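B., you asked whether I could sanity-check this one before it goes into the benchmark set. Here's the sequence:
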Amino acid sequence: MAQWLGTWQCEYENKTGAQAKGEASMGCEWAAGGFFMVCKSGTWTSVAGYDSEEKAYGEFRYFNDGWMDFSKGWTSGNTWTFVYEGEHSGGKARRRQVVSTFQSPTVWTYQWDRSVEGGPWVTTTVGKCSKVK
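And here's what the prediction gave me:
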């Protein structure tokens, strides 16, 4: 998880039409004890750590508008994948997948996809983040 440490400046494109392009910053640091990482952006905060029994990462994220979720994540090489499954939008089952790939220690790209009621995956957002020096 140490790859995520530091401050990141991100550019993104919303593929669903709302606010087509934008920028955001994110900062990540170890929580007291060094077992969990806390990351903060303008609209959300997350706490992530590794569960050795599940052999997966867990991430609890809460948003400024009162919404929250929990995702499970795995790594493969320089790619991190987190999956959320739950109910939103009037009780409809929704899955979200975020795939982040480190291009280098200072640059990573990401893609958010979602599926509602078991339907096809739809890419909602793509972006690129660079570490702030």
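One thing to flag: The mean pLDDT is 92. Otherwise nothing jumped out at me.
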